[in-house]
Input
Amino acid sequence: MGECWNMEGGGTLSLEEEGLRVHLRAVCPDDGRGLYKVWVRGRGGSLLLGTLTPENGRLALSRTLSRSTLGQAGCWPVTGGNTVLVFPFTEQSEEGEPWRPEPDPARLCRDPLLRALLRGRTGFFSGQEGEARLLAAPFSDQKEFPLPVLFCLAQVEERAGRRWLVWRFDRAGNPVVPAHSRNGTGHTRGVRPAQRPEGGKDYVRFDHKGAPSLV
Output
């Protein structure tokens, strides 16, 4: 039995079962931008498959794993995969650390409503920026906004040649209000920047209806 998925980040992931073993193969174009790693994804988590290497003018990776190994990682049955640029060949010191697939985005925040909305969600990535923890999702104006309740706190950033929706959380798991410039740039288009009350802190709390307010 064989299956194939288009991976988030580019390329395809194919699967072939042979008894208790699972043959996985990832293939994507070689754009020459750097080293890519592939994660296989399931309903309960993700597992690093390995690094793509050049093969006949493209990048490829083949691995054979047991069903039990995939199951222990929450990846059986397999539901897809992710390709992530982990080491760019060009200097990107201002772009921060590379994104990693985030199998449990709810762990980044403490608000009960946000945790409930994020629990079991896929397609998110995480990173670190100083003491701030970052949650990100690929940006597309052709797709539904992935986290409407945090629409006002999203920032569109370009990293490694791709646009991302980025949310920042402090060490306690509170969503951080973006720092906006005077001309209103830096926030999601069409949304007025939130105004901090005097002496207020830069994080947000949500009521039972999901309405955000500064604390």
About this structure: Residues 91-95, 181-202 have pLDDT under 50 and may be disordered. DSSP finds two helices and 15 strands in the chain.
